[in-house]
Amino acid sequence: MATIAPTTRLRKSPFYDSVMADGATSMMPYNQMMLPGGFGDPESEYRRLTEGVSMWDVACERQIQLQGPDAARLAQILCPRDLSKNVVGQGRYVALCNHRGTIINDPVLLKVADDCYWFSIADSDIGLWASSIAAERGLDVEVSEPDVSPLAVQGPKAADVVASIFGEWVRDLKYFAFADADLDGIALKVARSGWSKQGGFEFYLMDGSRGADLWNIVKEAGRPWGIGPGCPNPSERIENGLLSWGGDTDVHTNPFEVRLDRFVDLDVPDDVIGIHALRRIALEGPTRHQLGVVLDGDLPQPSHDQWYDIVVHGTKVGDMTNGTWSFKLERNIGFGLVSVNCNVGDHVQVHKSGNVIQGQLSPIPFTTA
Amino acid sequence: MATIAPTTRLRKSPFYDSVMADGATSMMPYNQMMLPGGFGDPESEYRRLTEGVSMWDVACERQIQLQGPDAARLAQILCPRDLSKNVVGQGRYVALCNHRGTIINDPVLLKVADDCYWFSIADSDIGLWASSIAAERGLDVEVSEPDVSPLAVQGPKAADVVASIFGEWVRDLKYFAFADADLDGIALKVARSGWSKQGGFEFYLMDGSRGADLWNIVKEAGRPWGIGPGCPNPSERIENGLLSWGGDTDVHTNPFEVRLDRFVDLDVPDDVIGIHALRRIALEGPTRHQLGVVLDGDLPQPSHDQWYDIVVHGTKVGDMTNGTWSFKLERNIGFGLVSVNCNVGDHVQVHKSGNVIQGQLSPIPFTTA
Question: pTM surpassing 0.90?
Answer without folding.
Answer: yes
